[in-house]
Structure formats: structure tokens, C-alpha cells
Amino acid sequence: MSKREIVVLGGGVGGTLVANMLARKLDRRQAHVTVIDRTGRHVYQPGWLYVPFGGPPPKRWERPERGLLSRKVDLVVGEAQHIDRDAHQVKMADGTSYAYDNLVLATGAWLAPEAVPGYAEGAHHFYSPDAAVRLGEALGAFQGGKVLIGVADIPYKCPPAPLEFTFLLDEYLRKRGLRERTEITYLSPINRVFTIESVSTFVTPLLEKRGIQHEEFFNTESVDPEKKTVTSMEGTELDYDLLVLVPPHRGVPLVVDSGLGDAQGWIPTDKQTLQVKVDPSMYAIGDGTDVPVSKSGSAAHFEARVVAERLVSDITGSPNEHVYDGRVMCFLETGHGQASQLSFDYHHAPRPPKPNHLYHYEKALFNHAYWYLVPPGRV
Amino acid sequence: MTVTTPLPSIDKEIDARGSFCPGPLLELIRGVKSVPVGGTVAVLSSDPGSNKDIPLWIQKARHDYLGAFAEDGYTRFVVRKAH
Predict the structure, then answer these.
(1) Deepest of A259, A272, A317, A363, by most Cβ within 10 A of its Cβ?
(2) Domain assignment of residue A49, given as a range
């Protein structure tokens, strides 16, 4: 049996977990695993939500990728530029290349502010460290007015995040004595405040109780930073003093340039086997796929386990029955120290409990325990 | 409402069966954004709520609703991008 060469593109939640599981389950004669990552820094992105409200600075949510990977895994820090499917090689910007037998695409999503006219000039967000810090500065200078919160485009990472931001903003403004002077409106792309009906059922009264208005069927088309207005594809125009919109997301340039993406750059992927549809020797996990689950670290986490098990079965010749069942588990912060929990898969709808302090503490604990639990595969 | 007219030609089809989050409607909106004006998009949904949500959005966004087509355990909703 020849040694299998496995290259993992991306050192986020999914890529790191796949690599570590393979390293644990296979010996050096069976497989050699390489992770290629642009920055060499592993980022826990859910932490950015708290940055604008004076939470820990972005650096606190980052760690060196090397320290999270098994010693049996090689880490290459650099820019992958092209995937040559015929030659089974990843070509790097510096001219080097890496051959693979199996490729795992854990490339994540790319922020594309240019996809919505006026967005870059007119809107704030918390989907990158710099933007989260800038939004914190804008909030610090804010003295009241109209705040709109929503999404610039779909799909986007972590569907509950703009709702969570809305609740945390309400709490923040109350503490600063500015809530009376502020009108907050939450913009939803669909006909209720959250895509999961049972979540909407308990969240809508919470919004109303806190005096937060909500506008349904608002899919952003453009922003006019001069007039300070935002227009939806459904034909509604709203004015603002502070606009917080989750930025448009797309697949990464590497995927697009290698001809592996759809119109928005997402990788067409089998939603159960997680094999890339155009080339079953490749797997795709996490935010970069077109799998119909939320783009979230949780989905990447559960998908990574399936891909690792499938590769191990393939290499060891054992029956390969591992499929992704659409499992996602995440929290939803509702402010004032409370949260709910969403857990679902392709066959089971979420039945979220009413928000309480316990889930808030569980989320807060997980935010810190992440480093010890997820990358090494302990959960 | 489920109709029995022949299935129109479809430019892009999205399988959102089993999708609770982001859900079939958001998958459909994404699909409509990705096709040119005049293009048709189908979304497959196993969520009974889609019978209400999807036609409502199509009407609100002023696109053309080409119908809901019952399949075995799911429904195929088809829309034409009007503008």
C-alpha cells in the first residue's frame, strides 16, 4: 500500500480538525497530511461579535495554527494560487507546488463589499477584525439616531449573528443612556425575523418588548452613502444614521480561479458525502461549499469529522458509510445575559428552548474552551 | 397551492430539502440573484412552510411565480426573474 498524500486547503475550524483527525487515526506509512493556510493564524470568528461592544480585542480570538495542529501534520503558510485538477497539484503564489492524492477544500468564504453598490462607503460590519474595531469606534461616537441592522446579501456566515448584534446593541445603548434617543430597526430578508419559524416565534416578541422595530422582506440592493439611505430589491428605501449590514460573501478567489465555484464562487458539493461534484477525489467542507446548511463553524466542525472518517475508511479499506446528516448546533444571544440554543439536522427541525442565562454562560464558556475542544477533535 | 401543469424549463435548480437554516426561501432568493433577468430558478423543499413563504416573497419582490410541483416527499417551486 502506497502512502496517501492529503492536502488540506485552509486552517480554519474544518481544515484543522480534518488534519488532526487524520493524523490521529492513520500512521505515517498510511498518509502524509499537509495544511496550507494563507496566514498561519487560526481565528475564532464568533468572537468578533463582541468587539464593537468593548469585548476582548480581535487578537484575543486568534492563535498560531501551528500550535493547534498535530506534529504529524505539515503546515505551509502561503498563498495557494491554483488547483491543477489534471496534475493533482496545488500551485502556490511563490512558484512552489504540492502534489495530492486527495484534496480537502476548507477555504472558507471571502468578503466582497464591492458586490453591493455603496456598501463599502456606507455600511459598518463586524465580520473582520478591522471592521469590528471601526464599528466599535463608530458606536463610541454615536449619540443617538436611526440604526438599521441587516444583511447586504445572502448567503452569509452565522445566520443568527445580525439578530444577536441587534440584541447586544440594545443592551449597550441602554447602559450608555442612549436608547431613548435611538430607533433600532432590524431588517430581515424574508417574511419573519429569522429563517427558522420557531426561533422567530420567540424572538419577535423579544424585539418588540425592547422597542426594536423590524422590517420584513428586505433584501439589500444598494446603499447611498451621501443620502444615507439603503434600498431593497423589493423596492423599500430606508434612511439611517448608522448602518450595520453583514457584508456580501463569496467563494474565495482560489476556488473561482480554479474553475471550482458556482456563480457566487461556492463549491458544488454533495450534501451527504461532501465530495466535490466535479471531482470525487476532492472533499469540501465549511463556508466554501454550496451545502444547504448555515455557513458556520459548527457545520464545518461536523462536516470535518465525516470527511476524516471517509478518508480513513478509504485508505484502510474499511466500509465507508460515513455521511453528513446536516447537523448544526449553535447559540443565539438575546442580550441581557441570556441565550438560546439551536440544534438541527437534515431530518430534525430545531426546537430551541426559551432564552435563559444557562445558554449564555454555556456560549461564553465555549468561546474560551473552543481552543481545547474543537481543533484537537475532543468534541 | 400545488399545480399539475407541465414543468417549465429550469435554468438553475437548488436542492434545499432538509435545510432549516438558511432554509429554502433564502436559498431561492440567492438563486434568483444569481441568474439573469428572464432566467428560471427552482428550489426543492420538504418544508411545509415553503407553501406560504415562497409565493409571498415572489409576490413581494415582483417576480413571476411559475408554480409549485408536487414530487415524492417534497415540492419543486419555480420562479422566473422578472427584473
Answers:
(1) A363
(2) 4-108+252-327
Q: What are phi and psi of A10, to 5 degrees?
A: 115, 125
Taking residues A199-225, report their average pLDDT: 95
Any idea which residue has 493533482 for its cell? A88
pLDDT-derived band of residue B7, with 50, 70 and 90 as boundaries? confident
How many CB atoms lie under 10 A from the CB of residue A278? Answer: 12
Q: Per CATH, which fold does B12-80 belong to?
A: Translation Initiation Factor IF3 (3.30.110)
Q: How far apart are CA B63 and CA B51, in angstroms?
A: 16
pTM score above 0.80: yes
Q: Is A113 on the interface with B (CB under 8 A)?
A: no
Give yes or no for a cis peptide into A189 (omega within 30° of 0): no
Closest Cβ–Cβ partner in B14, B29, B61 for A154: B29
CA distance B75 to chain A (A): 16
Question: Of all helices (H) and strands (E), which one includes residue A224?
Answer: strand A220-224
ipTM: 0.86
Q: CB distance A154–B26 less than 8 Å?
A: yes
**A350 interface with B at CB cutoff 8 Å:** yes
Any idea which residue has 492513520 for its cell? A26
For residues A124 and A243, state if they share a domain.
yes
C-alpha grid cell, residue A164: 444577536
A31-A36-A42 Cα angle (round to 5): 115
Residue A1 pLDDT: 60
Q: Is residue A377 part of a domain?
A: no
The distance of A51 to chain B (nearest Cα, Å) reads 25
Looking at beta carbons, which residues of chain B come within 8 Å of A155? 22, 26, 30
> A63 and A47: one domain?
yes
- Cα–Cα nearest to B48, from B77, B27, B9: B77
In a domain, A317, yes or no: yes
| CB < 8 Å to B26, chain A | 154-155, 189-190, 195
Residue among B14, B15, B19, B21 with most chain A CBs within 10 A, to mutate: B21
Q: Is A328 an 8 Å CB contact of chain B?
A: yes
Whether A195 maps to a domain, the answer reads yes
Q: Which candidate from A191, A264, A349 shows the least CB-CB separation from B56? A: A191
* Chain A residues whose beta carbon lies within 8 Å of the beta carbon of residue B60: 191, 217, 234
Residues sharing a CB contact under 8 Å with residue A84, sequence separation 6 or more, in sequence order:
A90, A91, A97
Report, as an integer, the average pLDDT of A261-284: 96
Instruction: Read off the pLDDT of residues A18-75 as tens digits, 9 standing for 90 and up.
Output: 999 999 999 999 999 999 999 999 999 999 999 999 999 999 999 999 999 999 999 9
Cell numbers at residue A189, please? 430578508
